[in-house]
Amino acid sequence: YDKNEIAADNKYKGKTVKVTGKIDDIGKDFMDESYVTLEGADLFQGVQVYFKSSEESKLGTLEKGSDLTIEGECDGMLINVQIVDAVIK
Question: How does DSSP assign 16-74, residue by residue?
């Protein structure tokens, strides 16, 4: 996504992806949905992950700075690359 958002959308958007990264943030958005942000190449390009409801109890055990592997559907980029319906691997 960093080099070419259009090409990345064509390759990844709507597809299941597996991503591993270091946890940068754990929180809730304005709609009260839980998310985890994985560190990116710069301040504004990480990977923001929204989880299936079945994963909610696992989110309370995560810590910033830890490594995390998830699998979910790429939903394109909106400040961060968005992954939805994710599960922790």
Answer: EEEEEEEEEEEEE-TT--EEEEE--SSTT--EEEEE-GGGHHHHTT--TT-EEEEEEEE
Q: How does pLDDT run across 21-47, given as a tens digit for each residue?
A: 999 999 998 888 899 999 876 656 789
Q: Say how far residue 8 (Cα) sits from the centre of its chain.
A: 15
d(CA 9, CA 32): 27
H helix or E strand, kind and range, residue 88: strand 80-88
Sequence-distant (6+) residues with CB within 8 A of 87 are 51, 52, 54, 55, 70, 71, 72
Cβ(74)–Cβ(15) below 8 Å: yes
